[in-house]
Amino acid sequence: MNSITGKTKLCGIIGDPIEHTMSPAMHNAAFEALGIDYTYLPFRVRPEELKNAIAGLKALGIVGLNVTIPHKVAVIPLLERIDPLAGKMGAVNTIVNEGGLLTGYNTDAPGFLQALRSKAIEPRGKKIVVIGAGGAAKGISFILAEAGASLVILNRTLSRAEELASQIAQFYQQDLKAMALSEANLKKALDGADVLVNTTSAGIVPDVDLTPVPAGLLKPDIIVFDIVYNPLETRLLREAKAAGARTIDGLDMLVWQGVLAFEKWTGRKAPFDVMKQAAIKALQNEK
Ligand code: ATR
User: Fold this and answer.
1) Do 166 and 83 belong to one domain?
2) Which of 4, 38, 110, 142 is the most exposed place for a label (fewest CB within 10 A)?
3) Active site residues
């Protein structure tokens, strides 16, 4: 742990629950690696206390904050400025405090994009299949549309997929389809697709035997990205590897969103590898 001084700058994360966050481990490891006088703490903030927490952030001069479930949407009206991309997505996960002026950003979706690009996958012109239509799917679908991919969104509840597709269509022109999550529709959607992204909670601990995609539909020519990181290798990724497909797990997205937040708060290049190792260690300690 880095030593606290009278000049230490404070960052943190607000959410409810917050006990299982890996962000303090990632950011404190990065501060230490760079030898900069910052520290990062978790704060459990109940929904009815969110307004007070944001006022407290200003009063205490906390320089940067991550925002997680359930506050990513509710925090928006409490901030002075919202980054345009975060505004379109309707979700903020990072606040930067510049002399009491709070700006909200979304680094979750750009973190996803960075994770893809770091594997030399450029979405422009690609056909990408997104499974799920919740909060995570929304950010990912918006950033993929912004990056020029065509999208097929499949969700267990068709109306949510349609709603998300129509929100995206307000801003972006490219090919966009919404379908119910069924084996027949998956087969159609995966025909000619370059990337498959799972944003659903199917496969998260303790439901590790669930997968949103039957193994028989996975082929070697598709890249499978599961944003779940607990477990790191979901059943979907295991079956994708067995089918000969390239895979990306949720840890890289988690680390990249942290990297992008860190760089906004400190103005320094974040040490990706240090943060990834810290996140892996924190994940192991959770077990
Ligand atoms: P998040 O913000 O993490 O995306 P969410 O908004 O609760 O969470 O969305 C969860 C997503 O996972 C939804 O798309 C949900 O499908 P429904 O809209 O039909 O509820 C999807 N999901 C959860 N469990 C699932 C399962 N067992 N099979 C398929 N989809 C599932």
Assistant:
1) no
2) 4
3) 72
pLDDT in tens, 15-34: 999 999 999 999 999 999 99
Query: Do residues 97 and 20 share a domain?
Result: yes
- For residue 181, the ligand 1 atom closest to its alpha carbon is 29
CA of 134 to the centre of ligand 1 (A): 6
Domain encompassing residue 193: 110-249
Residues 6+ apart with CB under 8 A from 40: 10, 11, 12, 13, 23, 24, 27, 28, 31
Q: Cα of 156 to ligand 1 centre, how many Å?
A: 8
In this prediction, residues 33-41 reach a mean pLDDT of: 98
pLDDT category of residue 73 using cuts at 50, 70 and 90: very high
Pick from 92, 138, 200 the residue to mutate for probing ligand 1's pocket: most ligand atoms within 8 Å of its CB: 200
Same domain, 170 and 243: yes
- Residue 287: pLDDT band with limits 50, 70, 90: confident
pLDDT digits (tens, 9 = 90+) for 166-196: 999 999 988 999 999 999 999 999 999 999 9
**Could you tell me which residues are beta bridge partners of residue 94?**
66, 105
- Domain count within the chain: 2
Sheet holding 38-44, edge to edge: 38-44, 9-15, 64-67, 94-98, 101-105, 81-82
Q: What is the pLDDT of residue 193?
A: 97
